[in-house]
Specification:
heterotrimer, A mainly alpha, B mainly alpha, C mainly alpha, B: mainly alpha, C: mainly alpha, three-stranded antiparallel β-sheet
């Protein structure tokens, strides 16, 4: 059994636990945190699975996924904070207009 | 030589597995959002570094090593920004942390007047 | 509008001046070309190489038009000491990771969350951001709010809280950024 398979299984178990937190999580922010953590773990998983199959080209996908995970988290947070994606970051938060 | 590399890879990646499992465990176990953020931070830093270090030892092309290093550097630069955005958004939304006596941020911790 | 502002700020007679902007543009193009060559891995196809060069130039042009080639967007002025700081920061990250792992495994014994304010001694926004991000990057401490020069920190255990309160990281960041 190769170490890559072991690592992939560990990452998947961890993703399952984060998913549990996303289902339980009392507030929306808990869920965003879980989604962010799952995104980071997905980057790791893509890289490990690429090595498992002997195709390190998967690393390009991992790099793009890291970018998208970051931008996606910020976009969702901005939407939750301001209620819209329009405009800069210096407006008033939702509910304080 | 290959044996040494393999043993090093096993050590690094098992360390990464340990930290990534601890991350998932902490996400489920900790009592409130702010403590869970700390748990999530572990996956972003040391677990990523250990697993990608192990992968870099098994790579047979130096371009692959460079790509791995770029992903690690990128995660190290962006993850604190995302974490800060999350913590600040929940703080401004008025979510109060559970603190355990050892604190001196008293008058201003509800964050309502800092909603900028 | 942004374009004319950029011209005003970087034009002749402006602080920094044309020379600095050209220097920054050229170094940005060099960095982009290096990144492209490392990521692509195809060096024998003229068409692909041409596309790469074109995209590097396009990005440099857009960055210049967006006016992000200032001290914050492209910090050329940082001293090489920043690499030594990264090594120190990495050692801190390893230590605090072990602290947090202990805390996850034995929460009754170690878990002692706290929230406190500290002063950041950096003068520039960039220095403050580097400091706040360093705090966040070490697990066990998270920057919750950065307001003027006050940093609101949430810490997981007493040890990590004391680590931030000792002010060592603050001193190092201030020294590396050449401020204060």
């Amino acid at each position: 059994m190769s170490i890559f398979a072991v690592t992939a299984i560990a990452i998947l178990v961890s993703v399952a636990m984060a998913l549990g937190r996303a289902i339980l999580g009392p507030t929306a922010y808990d869920r965003i945190l879980s989604v962010n953590a799952i995104g980071t773990k997905t980057v790791l998983l893509i890289a490990v699975v690429g090595f498992l199959n002997g195709r390190p080209d998967f690393l390009d996908l991992a790099l793009v996924y890291a970018l998208m995970n970051f931008i996606g988290t910020l976009a969702v947070l901005k939407y939750f904070k301001f209620g819209t994606l329009r405009g800069g970051l210096s407006g008033t938060p939702k509910g304080e207009q | 030589m290959d044996l040494v590399l393999d043993i090093l890879t096993w050590a690094l990646m098992l360390g990464g597995c340990f930290f990534i499992l601890i991350t998932g465990f902490g996400l489920v176990r900790f009592p409130d959002l702010y403590t869970r953020i700390h748990a999530g931070g572990m996956a972003d830093t040391l677990a990523t570094f250990l697993i990608f270090g192990g992968l870099a030892l098994q790579a047979d092309d130096w371009l692959v090593v460079v790509k791995l290093m770029m992903i690690v550097a990128f995660l190290f630069f962006t993850s604190p920004t995302a974490t800060y955005a999350l913590a600040q958004a929940s703080f401004v939304a008025g979510l109060k942390p559970v603190v355990d006596g050892y604190t001196d941020a008293d008058e201003n911790t509800d964050g309502k007047e800092e909603g900028k | 509008m942004a374009y004319t502002d950029a011209k005003k700020r970087h034009g002749p007679g402006a602080p920094g001046g044309d020379k600095e902007l050209i220097l920054r543009t050229i170094s940005l193009i060099i960095v982009l070309v290096i990144a492209w060559l490392l990521l692509s891995g195809i060096y024998d196809n003229t068409l692909i190489l041409g596309f790469g060069a074109a995209s590097c130039l396009l990005v440099a042009l857009i960055a210049r038009r967006m006016d992000v080639l200032d001290k914050e967007g492209f910090p050329l002025h940082l001293s090489p000491q920043i690499f030594a700081y990264w090594f120190w920061l990495f050692a801190e990250i390893v230590k605090s990771n072990i602290d947090v792992a202990k805390c996850v495994l034995f929460p009754k014994q170690y878990l002692q969350p706290s929230m406190f304010k500290i002063k950041a001694t950096q003068t520039s926004d960039l220095g403050k951001v580097v400091y706040a991000n360093s705090i966040t990057l070490t697990p066990g401490t998270v920057t919750v709010d950065l307001h003027e020069d006050t940093v609101l920190v949430h810490a997981l255990t007493k040890e990590t809280a004391d680590g931030v309160k000792s002010g060592e990281m603050d001193e190092r960041v201030t020294k590396v950024m050449g401020e204060g």
